Amino acid sequence: DPKWLGKLGLEYRIISEYLTSGSEDFSKLSQNLKWKIHAYARRQLTWFKRFKEIIWVKNINGASAVVKNFLRD
């Protein structure tokens, strides 16, 4: 059921809308998915930035250093 799929997540909702619309423009679906996922990620980052206790790292080495410091304390 498309309504059930829509409740599972963003990608499922977009794909089920595409399948039920009868459109055959796959490039439009692909572009829509990319844009909506990017917009969702931006909203997540905005939400997470409110929490000052989060330690942001740039790569795996930075993450390893943060974890080692945490485990030492």
Shape: elongated
Low-confidence stretches: none
How far apart lie the N and C ends?
51 Å
Structural class designation? mainly alpha
What portion of residues is helical?
over 70%
Number of strands: 0
Arithmetic mean pLDDT = 91
Q: What is the N-to-C succession of helices and strands?
A: HHHH
Q: Using the CA coordinates, give the radius of gyration.
A: 19 Å
Strand content: under 5%
Number of helical segments?
4
* Major sheet details: none
Give a quick precis of the structure.
This protein is mainly α and 73 residues long. The protein is 75% helix and 0% strand.
What structural keywords apply?
73 residues; mainly alpha; 4 helices; 75% helix
Protein architecture, described:
This protein is mostly helical and 73 residues long. It has four helices and no strands. The chain has helices at residues 2-8, 10-21, 26-48, 60-72. α2 (10-21) packs antiparallel against α3. The model has no long low-confidence stretch (mean pLDDT 91).
Topology readout:
Layout: H1 2-8, H2 10-21, H3 26-48, H4 60-72
